[in-house]
Each structure stands twice: as C-alpha cells, then as structure tokens.
Design brief:
The complex is a heterodimer.
Chain A: H1 9-12, H2 14-27, H3 59-75, H4 77-80, E1 87-95, H5 103-117, E2 121-122, H6 129-141, E3 161-173, E4 177-190, E5 196-209
Parallel strand pairs in A: 1-2, 1-3
Antiparallel strand pairs in A: 3-4, 4-5
Helix pairs in contact in A: 3-5
Chain B: H1 9-25, E1 35-38, E2 44-54, E3 57-66, E4 71-80, E5 94-98, E6 102-109, E7 117-124
Parallel strand pairs in B: 1-7
Antiparallel strand pairs in B: 2-3, 3-6, 4-5, 4-7
Classes of the chains: A alpha/beta, B mainly beta.
Amino acid sequence: MTRPARPDPFLAHPLALLLAASLLSACSSTPRPAPPAPAPQVRYGDAKAIETVTVDFGSTDLQMMAETMTRSLLQHKVISAAREAPTVTLAEVRNKTGEAIDTRVITEKVRTALTKSGQVRFAVSANEMQPQVSELKRQNQSGMYRNDTAARMGNMVAARFRIEGSISTIVKQTADVRDVFYIFTLNLVNNESGLIEWAEEKEIRKIASR
Amino acid sequence: MSRTTSVPRTVLLALGAFLVVAAGCSSAPSLQSMVQRAGNTQSVRIEDMRSVLRNGLLTAQVTIRKDDESQRVAYRYRWLSPSGVSVWDEEAWKPITLGAGQTAALVGVAPSPDAVDFRFELTQYK
C-alpha cells in the first residue's frame, strides 16, 4: 500500500510563495522605466555678459556693433555741430552673410541709443510707414474724431539723412578650427545731396576650436 | 651790492607739508580709484589713463599691459554725471586677448554730453 505524497511544507506556505514571486520579479529581464529627467535649472543671466555659446552672431556682437556705431555717429560733426537735432530715418542694412541675422535689431538698437542721447530725431522708416498712414487715415477719414484734435495730414517731418549699411562675413574652416570675421558698415547719407556724410565700420573676429 | 633773501628752512618745511596735505585732500580721483577690477586681473597693468572732450563728448583712453603669459579679459566704461550718477545703462563687456608683453589702448566714447567723468571696469573671462 502506497502512502499519498505530502505537499512540501515550505512551498505550501503562502508567505514563501510571495517571497519567491518577488525574487523572480526582481531577477526578471523586463526593463525598468527610465528615471525622470532632472528639471532644467532656470536662472537669470547678465544681459551684458560675453556670450560665446557658438561662433555664430550673438548678443555680444550685436551690443558691440551698436555701441561702436552710436558713439561714432554722435561724435561726428554732422550731429555734434548741428544747431538742432537732425532728422534721420532707418534704411536697409543688407545681410551679406550666410547666417540668418536680423539686421533690423542692430539698427533699431542704434536708433534707440541715438534717440536717448537727444542729439538726433528719427522719422518713421519705410517699414514703419503703414501704421503711421493707417493712424492718420483713422483720425481723419473715419469721422469719429473732432477735427481740432485729429493729427493733420501732410505735416509729417521728412528725414534729412538716412542710415544704411551692410554686414558681411569671411569664414575659414578646417577640421578643428572655424574662424568667422564679421564686418559691419553703416553710412549716413544726405537724402537731398546723396552724399555720404559719415561712415563707420566694426570688425569682430570669432574663433571656435576643438 | 645786491642782497639775497633766504627763506627760513622751517617755512619751507611748513609749505611742503601744506602742499602734501592739500594734495591728499584733493577731490580728483586717483588712477587706482578709477579702475574697478573683478576676477583675476591683477596681473594686467594700467599704464596710462587720459580723457579729452571731443565734439562735445567725453572720450577716454586707458592703456593696459600684460607682461607675462597671455590672458583674456573684458572691459567697459561707466560714464558719470557731475554728481557721480551713471548717465547711461551699463555697457556691454568687450572682450580682448592680451598677448604676453602686449599693450592695448582701449578707447571709449561717452554716450551723452552729460558725462563728465568715467570709470574703467576690467574683468576676466574664460
């Protein structure tokens, strides 16, 4: 007569089964979920600090170019010897580089500094003409304003001078070195005579190496 | 016969002491007080500092020199009104690399005729 096989007391215990299951799950090859990426650290930086993240046109280049142009123009006799602040407008600054440079931001920075100095007055540029015309039309043609308060048509002040220029680069590159030479030129042109009354250039060399 | 008058030595000493004290009490800032350094720039020497009024704007020139190994520094000017208040926002730092034994004359032009004085700021950058 054979005796029936008795179950293993260790395996029969529920706690033992739970322990075995947890060990098996720990040894399984299922990939664990990646830990969450650390939150980016956000901080304020010095807007005037030297920026050399890449060799491309950057904030320091913009600030140095605008500063050089502003100070040079303010010191020129066309501005400094004028009886009253000359009227100037912004014209085009051609981007001859291979980079996507917003040249408008350079000239607008120059304009802001010149205006703050009180030595120059700026007339709206061709790019800014549409809002000016729209406002004059709104005040004069919509029929909604009192005549004695509306800005009159035909009284805009024409600019005596215009500022125009260009920015160019010379780029040399090897496997380990990239050399970018920027040259930014601005001219002040007399709108009536066509004479270039003032010209200034700013050169900047930036080198990236491994 | 002509007579020569000799000034007593004590009077000369007193006069010298007065001049020394007067110079010490003068309000003109010293060259060192016009330079504000940050970072490791002590090895950059200020050789000369001068200014001139050109077409109504104060123009400053500071000459700096590095004797030993080359170093990258940055500089800017701060323009002051007669009361000592800045007449403009802070300028951008302008980088310059000074080679060993190199001298550089750094010119700055005030942004406004209101500026009558300046300070020269020098810092290191990497």
